[in-house]
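Sorry, I am new here, but would you mind making up a protein's amino acid sequence and the tokens describing how it folds?
***
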Amino acid sequence: MASNVTAGSSIRCKAAVCRAAGEALVIEEVEVAPPKAWEVRVKIVCTSLCHTDVTFWRMKDFPGVYPRIFGHEAFGVVESVGEHVEEFKAGDTVVLVLLSDCYDCVDCNSPRSNICSLFPFQVAPGMPRDPTASRFSDAMGRPIHHFVNVSSFAEYTVVDVANLVKVDPAMPPEKACLLSCGVSTGVGATWKVAGVEQGSTVAVFGLGAVGLAVVEGARLRGAGKIIGVDVNPDKFELGKKFGLTDFVNPNDIGERSISEVIIEMTGGGADYCFECIGLASLMQSAYESSRKGWGKTIILGVEMHGQPLCIGSHSVLYGKCIMGSLLGGIKPKTDIPILAKKYLDKDLHLDSFITHEVVFQDINKAFELMNQGSGLRCIIWMDK
């Protein structure tokens, strides 16, 4: 147990609370309860806005519940720990992750999965070990709901020990923050899910933060040709910073399909295709763009309209496969420290992902930038 002055007591602090779907967040004073068994209370240093936050912020029906504290990409410092917590102590520098890594279940102990079966991923409003419980309350004592096990849009938050990863204190906070979700998802997909090989061909559909992280991962894996597909022509120059070698703008190919163009560019189809937007039609195009015999299509985007993905059974017979992943197949406690070391060793490029920075009081500006499609990641500093 931590021995600092706040350990074991509730903390009053500021949080950005969403009280209704799509409404601007309100900076309020909230009370954060002390951590219970297997829980850790963290002082958030910085957080960033991910498209997943925006998606659920817009939801009027369940799992959209309010009031709620969003945010799940974050870096912080452990303030205190609850009973049975031995992995962390006060003062540890950590990143918070939405996907649990419990060390105990068959999935967490297997190299074949990163989806914890003890605490399966869900958008529950409470804690992993008690989905109905909240560690947040407002000025009137009413509970405020959690979001994907993290809720980082607060000066302090409480997370389960399974959703916390210790990182090297040499990591700059804003760079470590990126490893919580988006960058790890993209880089991990090339490494843990696809297994991209030296000299292979890769096509990335959608060059947002996750798509560009796929490009970065493909570069690290030694891909020979990395093709970006996006309707924004500016993404080609931006993508070159991460390793993009070629670019296809669907608006510039006339009557030809995206798959026809990519099959021609690769001499038969890309070895690996990644869909990073969340459109069933684009998932179909990615699959059609992959090479017969061994082509892999990895789905990283969540279909934004709830549409099914339909693949003709005839094409499956040719040996192509399609697969999805959560957090890019990354096992948080094992793999995020590896990515942090790659950054410190100057192998992993993180700096160019940060295009905006705001102070906590201006958190709604981050939402405006995301809705405008401006930039990649906006870092939100809690005390700067």
In short: The mean pLDDT is 95. The first strand starts at residue 11 and ends at 17. The two ends are 29 Å apart (CA to CA). DSSP finds ten helices and 17 strands in the chain.
